[in-house]
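Incident review: delayed structure delivery

Summary: a single-chain prediction request sat in the queue longer than the usual turnaround. Root cause was a stuck worker, restarted by the on-call engineer. No data loss occurred. The affected request and its eventual output are reproduced below so the record is complete for anyone auditing the incident later.

Affected input:
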Amino acid sequence: KLHDDAISEATPENAARRGIQMQNIFDEEVDNMIAQSL
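Output delivered after worker restart:
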């Protein structure tokens, strides 16, 4: 089961979706740091 999940998560679509999520989280954290430094 775990192995199947790893394979299904390795699709380009899921990788791209996860990449976008990570980018959004990163952007939010950067925005927070900028807001705190102002």
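Verification: Residues 12-37 form the longest helix (26 residues).
Action items: add queue-age alerting; document worker restart procedure.
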